Amino acid sequence: MGLFERVRKQWFLVAIVLAITFAKLQPSVGVHGGPLRPEISITYVAVSTIFLNSGLSLKTEELTSALMHVKLHMFVQIFTLGFFPTAIWFFLKLLALTSINPWLLKGLQTVGCMPPPVSSAVILTKAVGGNEAAAIFNSAFGSFLGIIITPLLLLLFLGSSSKVPFTSIFSQLFMTVVVPLIVGQIVRRYIKDWLERKKPPFGAISSCVLLMIIYSTFCDTFSNPKIDLDTFSLILIAFIIFSLQLSFMFLTFIISTRNKSGFTAADTVAIMFCSTHKSLTLGIPMLKIVFSGYEHLSLISVPLLIYHPTQILLGGLLVGTVKTWMVTRQKRSQKKTFCRTPPNV
Predict the structure, then answer these.
(1) pLDDT tens by residue, the chain, 345 residues
(2) Residue 295 burial (CB < 10 Å; 0-12/13-18/19+)?
């Protein structure tokens, strides 16, 4: 029974592995113009569905209160778009001395420049029971910041002569992130009682949509006949990416749980996922725009394609542990508050 429960709880991880495997075996399914029509279903429908789900399931008062948590937002955005790419830049100075494919190293730098994701951080924060409202705000706000900051970071660290169409990217983000979230909140006001009574499986729906995004992206990558991957470099990059994610998650955990940090346990969960996760749905289009015409664009994209499923796999594996820690921390905090409250006379 214990084994069955563990398998049942990790179904999402198993599904991700299967999606990646089938993407490698059958790359023609997800490419542009294929049966899945990813240029429409992924670019617009998938991301919109995730945020429509969030709008329907999230209490309006929680989202409103999250907007005022300026300290948390500043921490996430500075870490994601400031500390992360800078730390990667210094780290790559050491890796440049190795025999790792230099284009994969450039791809690793592009990962550091990416904004927070518009899906995975929210889903994992919700699965743990953390501050979902803060995760949603930072995912949306970070994505809009990334429209301007990410191309500038890419130009700063790697260089490119391409012009970035900020207006078109901004409008696409607005239509796929902000509008569905607002629509979900409006609809929730009219069917609030029904939602609380029936409790639809919003989390499962978002997880399935996320799987489709991963599957389609891997199909698109491995269908490229020009991609030439060095196995040794690829294995090293995958190991480095896993180590970086784990290290950065641990770093954000240590910083946000200090006594004087002012963050709750639920805040820490949102910080861990939002600060260390990187957007694939925004990242790949940005790379194609900024590095348009680059012969090694496919190789540059590989680290981001590895990073995205790795962050979901690692996050999924940590969900149970982080949730146990958060519940314990909250109970301890409530106990301290109860002990400090003077009895009624």
Answers:
(1) 343 344 444 445 555 555 555 544 454 455 555 565 655 666 667 767 777 776 776 666 666 666 778 889 899 999 999 999 999 999 999 988 888 888 888 889 999 999 887 677 888 888 888 888 888 888 878 877 877 788 788 878 876 545 556 676 667 667 777 788 788 888 888 888 888 787 777 766 766 776 676 666 666 666 666 666 677 888 888 899 999 999 999 999 999 998 787 898 899 999 999 999 998 767 776 776 667 666 777 778 888 888 887 888 888 888 889 999 998 888 877 666 555 555 554
(2) exposed
Asked whether 154 and 112 are in contact (CB, 8 A), the reply is no
Q: pTM for the full model?
A: 0.70
For residue 167, give both structure tokens: 């207006």
> Using N-to-C axis directions, what is the helix angle for 120-128 and 202-222, rounded to 10°?
150
- Range list of H helices, 164-282: 166-173, 179-198, 202-222, 231-256, 265-276
DSSP 293: T
- CB contact at 8 A, 285 and 169: yes
For residue 284 the two structure tokens come to 């790949």
